[in-house]
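**Protein of interest**
===
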Amino acid sequence: MTGRTESALRRQIIETCLGMNRLGINQGMAGNVSTRLDGGLLITPSGLPYDGMKPSDIVFIDKNGRPKGEQNPSSEWRFHYDILRGRKNAGAVLHAHAPYCTALACLGREIPAFHYMVAVAGGDSIRCAPYATFGSQELSNNALAALEGRKACLLANHGMICIDRDLDAVLALAVEVETLARQYCQALQLGEPIVLPAAEMRRVLEKFETYGKPQDGE
């Protein structure tokens, strides 16, 4: 975890929301962001524009799923709550209506291993969860299944979810996933992309475990 104070995390959630819109992975008031906090989580409120959001608008949800704050929590609080409760190594969740991810999701298509960087999401594909009504427990259940062993998934006819250790990491991952979705959509216009074999993706995943980390003796 980051060790940041609650007030700093509230500000960073707003910065993350503004960042995902600025980077083109979300639009308007769509999407939502959460981060782990002792005793529960902090999450964006429902129906407020990000550019007018105040730290006090961010909603705390306790470990029993009870919201506390001046605003109502995001309608998608259930999957944020369920993900952070079930994935102890995750510190932040980002949901966005990223254009290319959503285009694929509207076709019910996952992102296969057409490029080795698909492994950035933790596996040899980025799955697409079956459709369920937004804000429902069914949607949360579908998302949890699609995220098993993964850090990202698509939501059919809806958008995408990313999870990572903290807010900085989850925004960076969301950008990577949307870039992969765009590249896959562009490749599909030329033909059927070549998918890397499972053995190669296992090698890539092993290399990713130490990528960017200092080696012993350095």
